[in-house]
## 1
Amino acid sequence: MLRLDDRRLLSALDELAGIGAIEGGGCARLALTDDDRLGRDLVVGWMKELGLDVRVDAIGNVIGLRAGRENLPPVMTGSHIDTVRTGGRYDGNYGVLAGLEVVRALNEAKITTRRPVAIAFFTNEEGARFQPDMLGSLVYAGGLGLNEAYAAADKDGRSVGDELRRIGYLGTTKPGALKPHAFLELHIEQGPILDEEKVRIGVVESVQGISWIEYTVTGVSNHAGTTPMRLRRDAGYLAASVNVFARKLAQEMGGNQVATVGALTLRPNLINVVPNRAVFTVDLRNTDEAKLKEAEACVAAHVAEVAKAERVEVEAKVLARFEPVVFDAGLVDRVERHAKALSLSTRRMPSGAGHDAQMMQRICPTAMIFVPSVAGLSHNIKEHTEAADLAAGAQILLNLMLDLAEE
Ligand code: HGY
Ligand code: MN
Ligand code: MN
């Protein structure tokens, strides 16, 4: 069996994690920042060293293509190399760099596969700076127009289009021009299931639905000491009330329902002033679309009820909304077979996190391979996956890609 060099994979992960490194581990490379550019440049350099034909598309997605014996739709693998601000070193990076090690193994074994092989990283998967998340793969899959994507702006009003140009990754190839024969994404689980159950490989059947809403609340700033409670129009109170409500709602709904108020800013944000403005986000997710809709409706009703009682104005903006996605059953079976062929324990599961794969499933058969996250930690600088698990996932990727590239 062709083996890939997992030591090289580990050192590549370390080197990439050195860009935007955070004190104490992890890395921060928010999409289209200078650190993202440096990370992109490093990976593009590795792609070129491996002899890949590197293409940058009009939304900054980067694809390294390795020719096959025949000019057929390629077998593609990839993920993302942008991170959240408290990012770990494996989220996204692992899938891209494992793809490069697949190419290195093919090169060293002087194997030319029937189909071309492609390794991709997509722009702004995280959605931490620009929304929606999975922006690059969504455009690639035809789910969002380029102009709308270019117009997405961060908190400082910098747009995706301007930032792509500024960092030199406003490419020319048409996103989605290269339609894969199949797409695989190798990724850390980012949750606690595999680690708790001591299972080596997650055979991912689906990705849960996601709803991101940003609320802007306008009240009246007032003196914290002299303003009686009956006269308050406290924007911060509404934000806090929604946070508590969303937590309780998720607990009462149970199942896969989760709810997070992740971002919150108050103005004037001073100890002795009743806030007149609050901007906060609500992230709701569920594997069941009907339940996700129910959760959205409950939160919206609570916002309206409290806004009326507190006499504040509220503006809601949908930042991202994707329904659950089910992966190609045949390809999912093949992930499971390849894991078992290596005598690795497996369990089928949904993905709690969003991934580029959920967009690629729109245009080609797609599946994901998960490896365990220690203590289920992710989007946390302590994110960790054992070397043996990283190697096992990468070996499945190599074996399955070889399979797919010969059919
Ligand atoms: O939020 C997510 O699930 C992903 O990390 N973008
Ligand atoms: Mn990811
Ligand atoms: Mn992530």
## 2
Amino acid sequence: MSTTAQAHPNIALVKYWGKQDGTGNLPATPSLSITLDTLQTTTTVEAAQGSDRLYFDDKAADDPKILAFLAELRRLYDIPPLTVRTQNNFPAGAGLASSASGFAALTTAIDAECELGLSRSTLSALARMGSGSAARSIFGGFVALEGPAWEARQVLAPTEWPLTTIVVITSSEQKRIPSTTGMTLSKQTSPYFPAWVTSTRADFDLGLLLVARRDFDALAELAEQSCLTMHALMLSTRPPLLYWNTATMACIEAIREMGQAGLSVFFTIDAGPQVKAVCLPQAAEEVRSTLQQISGVEQVLTAGLGNGASICLS
Ligand code: DP6
């Protein structure tokens, strides 16, 4: 017997960067995200003999983060050694939130395979132990993650405010400094870290309000501000975390120009050089065709809002 689950990456409009001290991978800031539909991780788990075996795209892999996560789960539940096979239909480890969809799919598959019968909230809290942003990929649409429980919850279903995201890939190389390492460095070395935590709490409250009102223009301003403040924090970290390349900057400029010309679009960027342009569906075609002409852009993907993690019925 085996179980297959799928989950989509999400992108934060109000960003999470930094962790609380102690165990459990508790974020230092709340966050607000959208789940994307066309990008997807598919993960199959089945009981194995002896020890855990991991395969990424059918190749044997050794991923300490996943092995540590499985060890953590086994402190709470009775889980046998597992064979885990996982596939992404988009570049992994390049700032496209593959760890979010990956841990959400893995947690969902293990719950079903081992008949744990866990609620979505519990799955979200468990996925968070693997990767903070994974807590949000358990849910679809607009998703909030905040303390004290640090279980994500859905704020709006995908159909309640359909937005389109144009994902612009400017490099498919693996990122140089993983998020977990970068967050620790920012907290330890950036003089801006306390201010970041304070401003993000206020941004999160405002973000919830703007999503409830479907106020695109105000959300655009807030999301760009949250993104740029996070990157300012990254730049003020020692050693500096500079995730952008020349094409990243060119995309930012193009999106700002489109916004000034009246198109409903804004940018957001995570721990990598890819740019996500979030827009109203009627602006998507123009945004896409403008961005794909920019020098250095390798690939452009289009996504609507997706559902939460789910079991694939064979
Ligand atoms: C920049 O969830 O990848 O994408 O909890 O250490 O696995 P870990 O970090 P991760 O960090 C995501 C950071 C971000 C912003 C966000 O998604 O909120």
## 3
Amino acid sequence: MDYKNLAQTYKTPLYVYDFDYIQTRYLTLKNAFNARKSLICYAVKANSNLSVLKHLANLGAGFDCVSIGEVKRALLAGANKYQIIFSGVGKRDDELKDALESDILMINLESEAEMKRLEIIAKDLGKKARISIRINPDVDAKTHPYISTGLNENKFGVDINTGKKMYIYAKNSEYLDPVGVHFHIGSQITELSPIIEAAGILAEFVRELKAIEIDIKFFDVGGGIGVIYDNEKEIDTYDYAQGILSKLNGLDVTVVCEPGRFIVANAGVLLTSVLYEKFNKQKRFVMVDAAMNDLIRPSLYEAFHGVELVGKSKDESSCDIVGPICESGDFLAKNVMLPACESGDIIVVKSVGAYGFAMSGNYNTRGRAAEVAVSGGEHRLIRKRESFEDVVALELEFMK
Ligand code: LLP
């Protein structure tokens, strides 16, 4: 990819996504489940750009949404409403109402209280709500504590006993239709066994439910497949699918999975321009025009993202790549080897297609970056750079 040309054309900081890679990743996962009915519901939160969603909708993907905003994005991008799931650990009444009115595939519940709210709202609307329940299988996903969700100590889902009570309640309700089970034990998972263990626990649970005539049709295994940022080993999609399917003997269910990172992380890079270099007694700093408001993963999780200086490779020495924000935590990479940089050089920050732009903000009154799609050698803008006027737009009229 001609990063220099892209940076010149669209300016920096700039997110660039390889749409062909996104397609390959989606199809790889979809094909791994060939033997069974399956639905890949892309986790919108990872990268919610409308053009990314449209690209995936065109390929036949469904969508996993965690706010009514994400549901609306998916619909706007042309998603099939019967392939949209609405999850999320706390949903507002108006979100539940809008989701019911949108007639999406199912609403994924996370607590008894939420189920009772949904029942009342469905009754008011004269509708029967298709639901699944997020079961917390108490399995350790062995990932970063901030993105591990399947342990009893986490706020997500309900334990299996509570889940069973909820399914029985839902079955007897005129306004609830329990059609799915769901688990999601964490993100950036690089070991297959916790996912298979959770699938086994849930499959057994589905058998119990079927025995009491609760007919579960969707078996949702969540997202979480890890990707390579540095030297991780990626879970093989065939092993992943086979491992899950091996637990489903005798069960006539559609397997649903909700990958976010797997599909988009390594499709994206962030291009940033070098402003200048700075040395103090201890360190070399390369100041760039992207900052933690553009990519918060290094600051928030101490996440590693590979970096590369475009067009130069000689005389590397160690440095920190830092942004212009007034916080010591504002860095994109620490102790990395880079050649001597000059103002205007372009640095590529890798593997940022997931939870990159999606988690960006306006801290320090910095407009958010532009986004570009590349496919078949062609590039096009898919989100304009935010201007100063965009950033202050919602405040301006209230200034006295
Ligand atoms: N399904 C549910 C219910 C989820 O909570 C998540 C992610 C996914 C699917 C998609 O997970 P993935 O396939 O992308 O791992 N901001 C963090 C990641 C947070 C993940 C939250 N939930 C990061 O930058 O690493």
